[in-house]
C-alpha cells in the first residue's frame, strides 16, 4: 500500500516532483533502505546527496533532495525542495494531519525508549499501532517517525528527547499529541541546563503541543512535580499523576523468579500485570503507560495483560544468564537517577555476590565530581558487595567507597574489559552501567565472551583489587 505518492509529497513539501512515483516507506539510510522507500538525502556528518544514486539502484521509489546529484539522471524519480530537513518536517506534519487516530508522546530524563516500547507492546491487538524505531526522538527522528505513519493508524507513540533548551516544544507541536507523558526528571544534560529545575521546564514543554483538552501524565513523587504541573496547567491539560500516591497508583511490585508481579489502580480500575524484569522503576513506568493508554481510549485491562510480553531492550536493564553468572546489561546510558534505579535492581536480586561495573556519567555539568562521589551513599550500596569502575569521573566514586567495596578501577572501559576474567566469579549477579560515550558496553561484550567460552573461577578466588 502506498504511503506517499509524488503528488501528495509535492503538495506537503511545496516541492517539485519528477516522475509519477509511489513510495511505501521513508528511509534516511541506504544500509537499511527497502525497495519502494522514499530516500531522504539528509546532511549530517555526510551529505545524503552522495548516496542518492545508490538508493535508487537499490530500489528506492524516489529521493527527496535539494539538488540533482551529478551521478543521477535528470529524469530520475525525485522530489526537489529548497531544504531537505524542512521538507521532512513538512511530510511529518502532513502525515499527522491526515491521521485520524490517537497520538501519545513520551519524554523524560530516563526511560523514554523502554516506555515507548512498553506502550507499543501493551497496545497489541487494539488496532493499528505506529511507533518510533530505536531512539528516534530528535529533530530528525520525530519528523521521520511521523512521515512513516500510515493514514489509518489507530494509535501512534512518539518519543521526544532533547539535549538543549527549546528542543521539545517544537517537536511536540509537530506531533500534536492527545496524551503526553513524562517518565521522570533527573540530572541529565546539566551542562546545558544548569539545574534540574531547567530540565523540568524543558520536559514540561511537551504539554505545549497537546490537542485541546489533552491529558498530561506526569510523575507524582518528584521534587519538581510542581513545575511539571504548572506546565500542564498552562497548556490547559487534564493532569493525571502516577506514582505511589498518584491518581494512577502502583500498589504492589513483588519480585518473583526474575519477574515482577504488579498491581495498580488505573482510571478507577484495579489491574494486575507481570513484567519480565526485576527493576522496580519499570513497574512505575508501566503504571504511567497504562494511565496514558487509558487517557487515549485503550482498554486498560487488555493493555495490562499484554505488558507481560514486553522485555527491556538490549542495554537497558534486561537480566540474562551468562554461563555461571547473571548479567544486568544497562550500559546504554546513565545519569544519577538511572544509576540509582540500576543499583536498586541489583540490590533486590537474590543469589551470589552483587557486583556493579560502572562507567562515567557524562554531561552532568560543574557538579559532576560531587554527583559521582554521592553514589557511594546510595542506600542500595549497602547490598552491593563489589564495585569495579572505569573512567576519570568514576575515580571519585572509587575514592569515596569503603575499602571492602572497591574492586578494579581503570582509566577507560577498554582497559577494564581486558580484565573481564578477573571481574566476576561463579554465581555473581553483575550490573554494568554507564553513559553510552563511556563505552562501558565493551565490558558487557567482554563478559559475555568470557562467560560463554570458559569456566569461571570457583571457591574463594578473589577479584583483583585496583
From TrEMBL:
ATP binds at residues 108-114. Gene3D superfamilies: Mur ligase, C-terminal domain (3.90.190.20), Mur-like, catalytic domain (3.40.1190.10), MurE/MurF, N-terminal domain (3.40.1390.10). It catalyses: D-alanyl-D-alanine + UDP-N-acetyl-alpha-D-muramoyl-L-alanyl-gamma-D-glutamyl-meso-2,6-diaminopimelate + ATP = UDP-N-acetyl-alpha-D-muramoyl-L-alanyl-gamma-D-glutamyl-meso-2,6-diaminopimeloyl-D-alanyl-D-alanine + ADP + phosphate + H(+). Pathway: Cell wall biogenesis; peptidoglycan biosynthesis. Its EC number is 6.3.2.10. It is found in: Cytoplasm. GO terms for molecular function: ATP binding; UDP-N-acetylmuramoyl-tripeptide-D-alanyl-D-alanine ligase activity; UDP-N-acetylmuramoylalanyl-D-glutamyl-2,6-diaminopimelate-D-alanyl-D-alanine ligase activity. This is UDP-N-acetylmuramoyl-tripeptide--D-alanyl-D-alanine ligase. It comes from Paracoccus seriniphilus.
